[in-house]
Amino acid sequence: MNTKIARRDLLGRAASVAAGAAVGSFGMFSTRAVAQEPVKITLWGWWDVRMKLYADAAVGFMEQNPDVVVEVVTLPGGQDMLTRLYSALPAGNGPTMLKMGEFIFQLRDEDLLVPFPENLLPDNWLRTTYPNFDWETYGRYVVPTGTSASVLVYNKAMFAEAGLDPNTPPRSWDELIAAAKALTQTDGNGAIARAGFVPNEEFRPLDYLYQLGGNIVSRESGQPVVTFDTPEMRQAYQFLADLELEHKVWSHDFLPVGQAIGSGAAAMTICESWLIGEWRDNFPDILGDLGFAAPPTPTGDRDPSYGRKSLVLDISVMNGRPVEEQEAAFRFLEYFYKERLDIQFQLIDLVALAAERLDLLEDPRIQDAPWLGVMPEFAAHQHDPVQLTGDLDMVMNDVLTLILVSGQSVPDAVRYGQEQVQALFDGGTLNYMK
Amino acid sequence: MGALGRCTHQLRHGLVKAFAMTQVNTLNPVRGNRRNRSSVRRGQLKFVAFCIIPAVAFFLVFRFYPVGQAFWMSLHDWRLIGSNRTFVGTQNYQEILTDPLFRKILQNTLYFAAATSIGLTISALAVAILLNPIRRGSTIFQLVYFLPVMTSTIAISTIWLWLYQPQFGLINQLLRAINMPPGTWLTSPSTAMPSIILMSVWGGLGFYVIIFLAGLRNIPAMYYEAAAIDGASRYQAIRYITIPLLRPVITFVLVTSVIGSFNVFQQVYLMTGGGPLNSTRVLALHIYNTAFRNLEIGKAASMAFVMFAVVLALTLLQMWLRKADNDT
Question: Does the structure show a pLDDT above 90 at A73?
């Protein structure tokens, strides 16, 4: 038997099978290409309750634009979403649009965002509709959904139970501490069972720092100078430390503020207004007992500041996607921002934001909602640091740990914080902080 | 028969013919014996190569190529996104090895690996020795110990986060109930890592109990019978019979638990995020943050190779110690 012929025969049969498969698949693709498919665009974001509102807008847009399919994808928030984004982008699987957060500057600096086109979202329309937005810092890459202001949240039922007037919330730090002491309850072992006051666990000292007129960074000279170790910052940390060490109205290892207020384990907090959305979502029964007021300040006056606020950003269009996808995405945004004011209102109502759109500021529904009406006034007297990161939050918590757990003095701990924050600025992760 | 069926049939027919060709010369009475053997051997080698190629290709593509690519990345200032890829040689390695934070992270990781592996080995061996005499119902006990192994680490971490909650967590409530001071657990730099180690030992215990049980049941009963006749106590039987005969299993458990512990990530990511004060920041978490938060994938790749070198050194050390022990 001739082995060479047998081998040739085997190779020949294998080659013919492969060629046939290739011809068949080409035929299938050709058939598919003939029919015009709609352009598919995707929107990535976090928090399913909010993304459902965007999905409702997408349904309305697709009814008017059958040549576009909008897919809204809800992902885990924070670093998890960014990890998925950074993995998908090099592979070409990234989204067309992205719900923005504080990471906008990182994406913009990497040239991953596309600015709004003048023909669909003209500059004069944007600046007229969002007159207070910092266009110089953010650029034409995103518009704000609204502003999350710091607010005093207090449980009126607990106030009445403790003999305090539920319609007269504290206005100064001294009044806050007096009320917190009256509201604090301990168990048989002396542990705090109900905290009179729980400070927000994110960027803890910032509210108090801004109320004292301080800041972490100074840009007066044009270059950023880290001003973490200042008398104002020491005073802010001393205030926080005294809550636990002297007044005993809170413990640093207490429940997070969302769970503490929501479950009735705490009576008061100064927190960002978006937490109201979390209580409405997870602890709806507590909302009726909650009152909202301006954050107490050292003297009771609103100047120099009520505390910290932060912008909640909306949607940006990603670079690197096909041109037809980007064009379809901007058409969706034009529809969303010009025709769906109802969803714009729902978005700010969802997390109790101060409206940034001029037409929403004048909307009578803002005054009707128990928390929406007061937020613009608070936000107008608060400082927006623009860029805050998880690393900065960790440094701030570490400083408090040094004071409360390791027993270091406030000046020594704040000095440690100064070094760590300086390293963050040197690493370029806080280039836009104000 | 459809097209796919015809293709499969032809391929199978071709393979059979190819194999048959390797045997045909052995049946040919005309050729000399030496030529027959070399032809058969060549044919057999071809067939073996033909069968091995897919497996080798798989490892080349999915194992060796990514490792090589990662090493190439580690020699560059390579950003995760963007096109910046500047060759920097060993600069990444120099930077991380001179970074005090990286040294602390390496220290944390070694601490975790050593404590967890020793804790797992001792506790798993103790539980296996206790379970070994039990015959009826032993499967139930093994299942109970193995349940945490089958449970997702994220789920376990979430539960333990609540157990460790200083005010309302179950552990501190039990301690207060018996008039003992509550623990600081995850909130203090001195207790955060031991808390995670405790949780990790609890989570991995069942797997090694099963391994030790298998080893124990391979020890012939006659050794224990002889020891009993000589008047040895239970402790002496364990010390002079069980542990020496289980030495290979103990080595295996130590090596695998050390290697596994170096990859700790999920529980630290969820429970502490590396804090407080970097006391629980471990290598895998730092590599993740460097790659996906700071977008410095070149530097992250160099950290991964440092981790590989450390794990390899530890493994070789353990192998050498075991060999030295066997030789004596």
Answer: yes
Could B10 and A14 be called an inter-chain contact, meaning their C-beta atoms sit closer than 8 Å? Answer: yes
Inter-residue contact A252 to A242 (CB < 8 Å): no
Q: Which domains does chain A have, with CATH numbers?
A: 39-147+311-380 (3.40.190.10), 148-310+383-426 (3.40.190.10)
Instruction: Cite the beta strand spans of chain B per DSSP E.
Output: 76-78, 85-87
Distances (CA, A) of A350 to A97, A275, A362, B215, B314: 21, 10, 18, 60, 54
State the residue for tokens 């993740």: B288
Q: Could B294 and A429 be called an inter-chain contact, meaning their C-beta atoms sit closer than 8 Å?
A: yes
Instruction: Note the pLDDT of residue A18.
Output: 59
Q: Does A65 touch chain B (CB under 8 A)?
A: no
**What does the pLDDT read at residue B39?**
79
Q: Tokens standing for B290?
A: 């460097």
B16 touches A at CB < 8 Å: no
Domain architecture of chain B: domains with CATH: 3-74 (no CATH), 91-327 (1.10.3720.10)
Q: Which two tokens stand for residue B91?
A: 């600069």
Q: Which residues of A touch B166 (CB under 8 A)?
A: 251, 253-254
Cross-strand bridge partners of residue A146: A312, A355
* B21: confidence class by pLDDT, cuts 50, 70, 90: low
What are φ and ψ of residue B226, in 5° steps? Answer: -65, -40
- What does pTM read for this prediction? 0.83
User: Can you tell me the mean pLDDT for A152-163?
Assistant: 96
pLDDT higher than threshold 50 for residue A179: yes
Q: Residue A7: its pLDDT value, please?
A: 62
Under an 8 A CB cutoff, do A3 and B24 touch? yes
- Contact between B41 and B22 under an 8 Å Cβ cutoff? The reply is no
Alpha carbon of B74: minimum distance to chain A alpha carbons (Å): 18
Reported as a single tens digit per residue, the pLDDT across B235-252 is 888 899 899 999 889 988
Find the length of chain A: 434
Amino acid identity at B67: V
